[in-house]
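Quick start: what a row looks like.
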Amino acid sequence: MADVINGTPINKLPAATTVADSDILVIENATKTQKIAVSTLREQLGLLTDEEYADLLKRLQ
């Protein structure tokens, strides 16, 4: 498992204050380390994009 990225322990990396759909997140379980795009995670969780949310608000007004 990869608990070091570019020589820096994961828990020592700076925190992200914003995320974009094109950003990549690291997923680690007991046997492997994988990646997932924020857009894919959002889709899997059934969450709206910022654009979809704004459009929904406009239609509700």
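That is the whole record. The first helix runs from residue 38 to 45. The chain has a mean pLDDT of 88.
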